[in-house]
Amino acid sequence: MNRLSMRLGGGIFLVAAMLVLAGWWTLRAETSSKWKLNKESEALVTDAKLRDEIFDALGAAEKAGTDPRLTHFNVRVATAFEKEGKERVVVGGNTEYEIPEGIHGETSVLNHVTALYGPETTRRDVRFLAFFATQCGASSCGDCRDYQLATTDYERLLFVCGQSSDRTVKVTRFADQIVCERNFPEVEAGKIPLAPEELRGLVKSAEEARRGGVTLFTKGRHTGAAALSFAGKTYRAAGADDAAFHYRYPIGGLLQQAMTERDYFLRAIVVSAENGDWPVVNYRDRQYGYEASSFNRAAGKAPIVLILSNGRGQYRMTTFESALPNAFSTADFMPEALKNFLASHAGEK
Ligand SMILES: [Zn+2]
Hints:
The protein is α+β, with helices and mostly antiparallel strands. The chain has helices spanning 3-33, 39-42, 48-62, 105-117, 119-125, 142-151, 196-210, 250-260, 283-298, 320-323, 330-333, 335-345; strands at 36-37, 76-83, 86-93, 95-96, 102-103, 128-133, 158-163, 168-173, 186-187, 224-229, 234-238, 266-272, 305-309, 315-319. The protein folds into 2 domains: 36-177, Cytidine Deaminase, domain 2 (3-Layer(aba) Sandwich), CATH 3.40.140.10; 181-348, Cytidine Deaminase, domain 2 (3-Layer(aba) Sandwich), CATH 3.40.140. The strands form 3 sheets. Strands 1-8-7-6-2-3 form a 6-stranded mixed β-sheet. Strands 9-14-13-12-10-11 form a 6-stranded mixed β-sheet. The chain is globular, with a radius of gyration of 26 Å. The chain starts with a helix and ends with a helix. The structure holds zinc ion (ZN).
C-alpha cells in the first residue's frame, strides 16, 4: 500500500467514523428525550393525557433544584395537572441543613401546589408525584407518607419513578405504601412473644405514659408507648405537641431514651390510646421504629414486635417492616458504618 492509498483509506475511515458518530448522537438525542412506561405500569396509566402529564412532569423534575449537602442524594420530583384549560407543572426538591434534617421532595412539591393553587387543587387535581432518579425502587419516608395521606386524594395517587439511565418509567400506587392499623392482625395475648408479666407491665407502662405528654393541639388521638429492650429495661413516652408544630412522637421519644442509655436493641413496643380505642401509629413514628428494628437486623436479632393495645385485653401485633412497606434506613444506605457504630457503642454496656 503506497502513501496515497493509505491517506485515502484513512480519509474514508474518518468520514465513516463521523457518520457513525452523527447517527449515534441523533439516536441518543431521540432516546434521551423519550420516556417509556414499563409493562406493569401501562395498566395503571391507561389514559393518554395522564401519560403525557407524567412525561412532562419527569422532564421538569429532571431540572428541579435541590440542596442535599449532607447525603448528596437528590430527590427531584414534579407533578402536572390541568387548571383553567392549561397544563400546570409544579416541581419540588429536597434540601438538607446542618444536622440530619431536611425538607423532603414530596412535601416540597405538594406544598408548592398548595401555595400556588390552594389545598383543594392539591387534593382534587394532583394524581401523581413523578420522581427523576438514577435508580428507581425507593418509597417515601414515613413523614412524607403522613403528608401525602393528609393532603392528597391518596387512594388514587400514583407514585411514579423515571429512571435516568434507560428512561423507563415505573408506576405504582401510593396506597401500596400504606397499612391501616385495622389491618394489623388481631392476636390473643398468649400468641404474643412476651411472658404474660412482661406484656402486662408494658401495657400498664404505656397507659401511664399516655396520661402524660402534651395535648394542647392533639385532639382525640393521643397515645403512649412503652418498650422492652433485650437488656430487660423498659422505656416509655407520650406524644407531645408545641406551638412550632414540631410534634414529638411517642415511639420516637422512647427510642431516644433507650439510645441515650446505649440500649440499642428493643424486643417489643406496646402502644396505647384512650381506653377502648385502638391507637393510631403515625407513619413518621413507624419510620423511627423501622430504623431501630434495622439495628436488630444488623445484629442478627429478631425484628421489634409492635403491639397495639385497646385497653380491654385485645391486641393487634405486627412489625415495623410490615407496617411501613418498602421502607429505608441507615442499614440500607450505610451498612458498614452502622455495624461499626453499633459495635463501638452498644458493646460498651
Ligand atoms: Zn420524606
